Structures are given as structure tokens and as C-alpha cells.
TrEMBL record:
Keywords: Membrane, Transmembrane, Transmembrane helix. The lineage of its organism: Bacteria, Pseudomonadati, Spirochaetota, Spirochaetia, Leptospirales. This is PF12158 family protein. Pfam families: DUF3592. The keyword Transmembrane helix applies. The chain crosses the membrane at residues 12-36, 137-166, 178-199, 298-320, 340-361, 472-496. Residues 78-130, 377-469 form the DUF3592 domain. It comes from Leptospira kirschneri str. 200802841.
Length: 500
């Protein structure tokens, strides 16, 4: 006779709270599924919407308004009339990122008339651009799939918990298996999304080599600062160009997508700051797409390799999970499982080690190249110490709680051929830091409030250094990472020899 387990009231309360939490997560996932699905659907439908004319009634370039002691910028908003009824909207195009939206509205102004497209069935819905492009919808599609898998994950846990409560252990066990299968599918999908992103970036970078060249002009250069410090974090360049009688605005510099490097924001600023005109390469098919520098870089290929490796690891476990349910027609041998799994596991480490080794020896090359670089006088325009704690948060030197590393920050200006440049590189080979605050402060005293001599690259004056030092750390990084790469490569050879 089957014994019936009694459930106490506290257990029921805990269970109900657990189910409520799971229901909330399931609801949020379903809400994301609905939102991204609707965005994709509306983007498709907008192609057949009716054209009309609208007037910009609000623009971010206007003076900020004060509301209840809170400074808030005015948002982009346009108004239009359909069948005698006034409507307002702020949608540029479905699937655009914040940066792309900012680029689109950069050249617009208040009271300007623009062309729009509205939904004849629901005139409240409208867009400024109604082109349906997969490249602009890649992120909504990826998030749609992710939310779909996440909804299945939380829903399966919720159902299995209810089944267990009512003594349906066998059915609940099947639901738990679905949970693990969905979990593996999510972990397989996440790196695949990086693969999709990298493949798209590589494709666009290669495609940009064939884009049409035209003349443009720099509209503005904005430097975005870190929230925790005055350190420059990013510099955005907005430029304008004309084609086919229409004017376009963009901020895309290139598809190179390199790792951020020391002085990157100043290189961007120096390159375009004093430029009135600039060469722009635009996509002849979709003229809204453009870059200032053609081609692709190493970084998308690096992310692509990492994505493929990690998706292989989880994908192979997912295949084993499916195989355990006798779904696959071809049996996966245990030997092949181990070979592919270990190869996928070690390949990311090999890629990272090779990349770090390359950066190390690249700095060694720059160090020796700099022996023949000219020197020029520079003026220190800023010098301070940043403190980085264990969480990576940059704080002021006065905040001495949970400190990890002291990083001297020095900014200087110099002139080459009557053009002013700004730099912040102290030495070749990366950021200089110390766990001792007095050491970092000593470095500042060497340069504070005085003129200095710097080394600069005559072929690229934006690249400059206060000191031609740091070669030892560059050698160390290059050699150690290189040896680690060889070690992993030998392991991979050994794995595939065993397979044979």
C-alpha cells in the first residue's frame, strides 16, 4: 500500500511563496517574449504603412527643463494629423539602439517637418523610417529566442514543483528532465548569440570595403565620462553626409571593434577634433549605414572563436542529453564526445593566450620602434590618482576603504605642426598601478604642474608616451602567454592523437 505523505502548513506556505516567485520570473520572461516578438512583427508591418508629414514638437537639443528640482532633458517627439485627429509619437524605427536613435535625431531640430509612416488601422502607431532590415533586428530576434527559452525553463520548474506536491513524481521527473534540457539549450544559445553578432560585424566590415565614398562634415564630438571618476571612457563622433538629395547623420566610426586600449578616447578626439570635412563610406543600398574607416579587425574573429568553442561545449552536452532520450539517429561515441568536449574547452584558453601574447610582443615592437621617435614638449593639464577596489570601482584617493590598486592618471597636451593633441599614456605596455599609494603619488610629483618631454609617433602623432618604459612587463606577458599557448596546443595534439 502506497504511503501518503502529509504536508505541513509551513511547507505549504514556503511552497506557495516559491511558486509565486517562479510565476513572477515566468511572467517577466513571457513579457519579454511578447515585447520583442511585437517589435519584430511591427517592424515587418510598418513596410506597408501609409506615408504622411509630421512636425518635430520636442527635441533633446532644447534647453533642459526643471521639474520638481530635477533636471530632465526634453525627449524627441513629433506630431502629426490623421483624419483631423492629432497624434504624438517618438518612434524612429523598430529595432534601433539608443546610439542609432541619437545619430538619427542629431541633425533634426524643433519645428522641422519630416516624413513619417503611420498605421492606417491604428494611427497612434508611426515610424520615421519603415525599412525592414534583418541587421537592425538581430538583437530583438536574439532576445526573443532567449526569452522563449527562459519562459520554458521557469515554467517547467513551476509545473514540476506542483506535480511533486500532489505526488506525481514520475511526471514531475520528466518535467525536470525538460528543465535540464532547456537549461542546456540556453547555455548553448548565449554563446551562439555572440557568434551571430561577430559574424554580422565581420560581414559588415568586409562589405564596407566596397561602399561608396563621399564627403561629410563633423557635427560634434562628445566625450562620455565614467560615473565614478573623471576618467574618459568613450568618445563619440557625430558626422553628416548627403546622398541622393537627402541628408544623413551617423556616429559609426568602423567595424574594427578592437579591444579598448590606453589613450583610445584621445586618439579618436585628436583625429576628428579639428576636422571640418571628413571622408565617409556609405552603403549604396541603405544609405543610413556608413563608416569613417573601412574594413574589419581581429576582435570580431576572436569573439567568434570564443562563441563557437563555448557553444560547442554546451551544445555537445545538449546533444548527449537528446541522445539519452534516443532522439538522435546516429550514436555519438564516448571517445568522440571526450575529444570534442576537451577541444572546445581548451580552445578558448588558447585563443585568449595567443591574443595576450600578441599584445605583449606588440608593445615590445612599439618600444623598440620608439627609439627613433622624435620628442616634443608637452604641458601637463591634469594629474591625479584613481583608486580601484576589488569590485573594479574607481574612487578618489581620499576614499581609502576596500582599496586594491592606486593608478596615476596624467593628461597632457602637445603641438605637432601647429595642431594640438591630447594624450594620457604614461608608459608603453599598458596601465601602471601599485598597491602602495605613496608610489603612485611619487609618479605624479614628477610631472605635476610643469612642462615635460614626450615621445610621439611621427606617422601617427595621436600616439605618444611620457616614458619609453614598460618593456620588461611587455616581454614577460608575451613570453609567458606564448609558452602557455604552446602548452595548450600540445595538449590538443595529444587529445586528437589519442582519438586516432
Amino acid at each position: 500500500m502506497k504511503r501518503k505523505n502529509k504536508i505541513s502548513i509551513p511547507e505549504i506556505i514556503i511552497f506557495l511563496i516559491f511558486i509565486l516567485v517562479l510565476s513572477l520570473f515566468t511572467g517577466f520572461s513571457a513579457l519579454g517574449l511578447y515585447a520583442f516578438g511585437k517589435q519584430i512583427q511591427k517592424s515587418w508591418e510598418s513596410v506597408s504603412w501609409m506615408p504622411s508629414t509630421a512636425t518635430i514638437i520636442s527635441h533633446p537639443s532644447e534647453e533642459e527643463e526643471k521639474l520638481d528640482e530635477i533636471i530632465a532633458k526634453k525627449k524627441f517627439l513629433y506630431g502629426y494629423i490623421v483624419n483631423g485627429t492629432d497624434y504624438k509619437n517618438d518612434t524612429i524605427r523598430f529595432g534601433l539602439s539608443e546610439n542609432e536613435i541619437e545619430s538619427r535625431i542629431q541633425n533634426l531640430k524643433k519645428n522641422q517637418n519630416i516624413s513619417i509612416y503611420y498605421n492606417p488601422d491604428n494611427p497612434k502607431e508611426s515610424v520615421v523610417e519603415n525599412a525592414f532590415e534583418f541587421s537592425n533586428l538581430i538583437y530583438p530576434i536574439l532576445f526573443f529566442v532567449f526569452c522563449f527559452l527562459l519562459s520554458i525553463l521557469f515554467f517547467s520548474v513551476e509545473i514540476s514543483s506542483i506535480l511533486f506536491l500532489f505526488g506525481k513524481e514520475k511526471i514531475a521527473g520528466s518535467t525536470i528532465k525538460m528543465f535540464f534540457g532547456t537549461l542546456l539549450a540556453i547555455f548553448t544559445f548565449i554563446p551562439l548569440s555572440f557568434v551571430s553578432f561577430s559574424a554580422h560585424e565581420i560581414y559588415k566590415g568586409i562589405q564596407s570595403n566596397t561602399w561608396k565614398k563621399t564627403n561629410g562634415k563633423i557635427l560634434s564630438i562628445r566625450t562620455i565620462y565614467d560615473n565614478h571618476s573623471t576618467k574618459h571612457s568613450n568618445t563619440k563622433v557625430f558626422y553628416q553626409y548627403a546622398s541622393g538629395g537627402k541628408t544623413y547623420t551617423n556616429s559609426k566610426i568602423s567595424y574594427l571593434k578592437e579591444f579598448p586600449y590606453i589613450g583610445e578616447e584621445f586618439d579618436t578626439f585628436n583625429l576628428y577634433n579639428s576636422s571640418d570635412s571628413v571622408s565617409v563610406f556609405l552603403n549604396p543600398d541603405t544609405k543610413e549605414e556608413s563608416v569613417l574607416i573601412q574594413g574589419t579587425g581581429i576582435f570580431p574573429f576572436f569573439v567568434l572563436l570564443l562563441g563557437v568553442c563555448f557553444s560547442n561545449i554546451f551544445g555537445f552536452w545538449f546533444a548527449i542529453y537528446i541522445d539519452s532520450h534516443k532522439t538522435l539517429t546516429k550514436k555519438i561515441s564516448p571517445q568522440k564526445q571526450r575529444s570534442v568536449l576537451f577541444t572546445s574547452f581548451f580552445l578558448p584558453f588558447l585563443a585568449v593566450a595567443l591574443r595576450i601574447s600578441f599584445l605583449g610582443f606588440q608593445n615590445v615592437y612599439i618600444y623598440h620602434l620608439a627609439e627613433n621617435w622624435p620628442i616634443t614638449e608637452a604641458t601637463i593639464i591634469g594629474a591625479h590618482v584613481h583608486v580601484q577596489d576589488k569590485n573594479g570601482v574607481h574612487q578618489n584617493i581620499s576614499d581609502r576603504t576596500r582599496l586594491s590598486q592606486y593608478i596615476p592618471k596624467i593628461e597632457y597636451s602637445y603641438r605637432i605642426e601647429n595642431k594640438e593633441y591630447i594624450g594620457n599614456r604614461i608608459q608603453i605596455g599598458g596601465i601602471w598601478s601599485s598597491s602602495n599609494s605613496s608610489v603612485a603619488e611619487e609618479i605624479l610629483k614628477k610631472y605635476e604642474n610643469r612642462s615635460v618631454w614626450i615621445h610621439y609617433n611621427p606617422k601617427n602623432p595621436t600616439e605618444s608616451y611620457l616614458e619609453r618604459s614598460g618593456v620588461f612587463s611587455a616581454y614577460s606577458i608575451g613570453i609567458i602567454s606564448g609558452l602557455f599557448s604552446v602548452f595548450i596546443f600540445l595538449i590538443l595534439i595529444r587529445i586528437w592523437k589519442i582519438k586516432k
